[in-house]
Design brief:
mainly beta, 6-stranded mixed β-sheet, 6-stranded antiparallel β-sheet, binds beta-D-mannopyranose, 27 strands, single chain, about 45% strand, about 350 residues, 2 helices
Length: about 350
């Protein structure tokens, strides 16, 4: 539903966008594809990545489409693997399982990994006959995770902070709304990781000049000397771009990503943002040119970030809903492209005008 009297309605079309020169793509991209899965897979992308106990862990979304010949219908799962260098990952023989009331949840996808209090957590979305829901699960060893909490529909892009904030756990989520035509990032607090509340708006779609449809949290926020750094995806739509995807669906959207900074002591308070994207699909493995077969063009979807001890920030992103790629920058370069900012809506209770 489009609200005509919405004071935050932005421009209809965002226009041309380019990647920032501060981002360096890894020359060996993509770092992980469907061919690396030890079981049937059509596309492997959107991977949560973190460093835990001296190793890198990865949890990529893996889709199997019927035309692969081995599946009667599309299915989605999440792989799980490790690496010593953050570039060469080996996946476990089976996808990960997220147990809830004795059963593994179906279609777990778009995972983010967080190390919190020395434990490894998976924040995820799962899809089923009663819609999409988010959840958080704790690793139990092998490929097993156990649910700690599940949210209600319709939400995706749940992300857990790696530390307590003033004595409470904090998470981000992205509810889907039928009210208004844009989706925003929200936050909640919890005393125990299980019960969540005090939910409020973190960042509005209107705060991101290169989004006109939705935004969502990317990897788990990273603590820096300037505050909490959040890499987020931004979606803009332009009907002029409408053209079919390889499987026929019309597609006129574009997923790019940027960065926002939040106050160290109060991460609900925005302090700075990139007013243009950090990255936009440009390389063949991101656009589907040059013989690369991709599923959804113009789509970059970051789910992993690792701040190395030498100041390099590694960002892991899904490209074209088809593969996992890596790009790097440094915090000092990031500060040079961020602008001081505060949220346009000072509360999440602004009346219609
Ligand atoms: C979102 C999610 C992501 C996907 C993106 C682009 O809604 O489903 O997994 O990468 O769309 O297709």
């Amino acid at each position: 539903m489009i609200l005509q009297n919405d004071p935050f309605r932005g421009p209809k079309a965002v226009g041309e966008l380019h990647s920032s020169p501060i981002m360096r793509r890894y020359a060996g991209n993509p770092i992980l594809t469907a061919q690396d899965a030890p079981y049937p897979a059509s596309y492997l992308f959107n991977a949560g990545v973190t460093r835990y106990r001296g190793r890198y862990y990865i949890a990529p979304r893996i889709d199997l489409l019927p035309e692969n010949g081995k599946a009667p219908m599309q299915s989605i799962c999440t792989g799980f693997g490790t690496s010593d260098d953050g570039i060469h990952f080996t996946l476990e023989k089976e996808p990960l399982k997220v147990f809830y009331r004795g059963k593994a949840l179906p279609w777990v996808c778009d995972a983010r990994l967080t190390v919190l209090e020395e434990e490894l957590y998976l924040a995820f979305c799962f899809e089923n006959c009663h819609s999409e829901r988010p959840g958080i699960a704790r690793w139990e060893g092998g490929t097993d995770f156990r649910v700690v909490t599940l949210g209600i529909p319709q939400q995706r892009n749940m992300v857990l902070f790696p530390e307590k904030i003033n004595g409470r756990y904090m998470r981000l989520e992205r509810p889907a709304v039928q009210y208004g035509d844009r989706f925003h990032i929200w936050y909640s607090f919890s005393p125990d990781l299980r019960y969540w509340g005090e939910s409020d708006l973190l960042l509005g779609c209107e705060d991101v000049p290169f989004a006109n449809v939705k935004i969502g949290a990317g990897p788990a926020p990273v603590r820096t000397e300037r505050g909490w750094l959040l890499i987020f995806h931004a979606v803009d739509d332009d009907p002029k771009r409408a053209a079919p995807l390889p499987r026929g669906t019309m597609w006129s959207r574009r997923y790019t990503f940027g960065a926002a900074l939040f106050d160290s002591d109060d991460p609900t308070r925005l302090t700075a943002i990139t007013r243009t994207p950090l990255m936009v699909a440009e390389k063949d493995y991101e656009t589907g040119s040059g013989g690369y077969e991709i599923w959804v063009r113009d789509t970059l979807f970051p789910c992993g970030a690792v701040l190395e001890e030498d100041g390099r920030l590694r960002i892991y992103y899904g490209a074209g809903d088809s593969c996992v790629c890596l790009a790097e920058t440094t915090l000092s370069e990031l500060w040079s492209v961020m602008t001081p900012a505060s949220r346009l809506a000072d509360t999440a209770t602004v009346p219609f005008r």
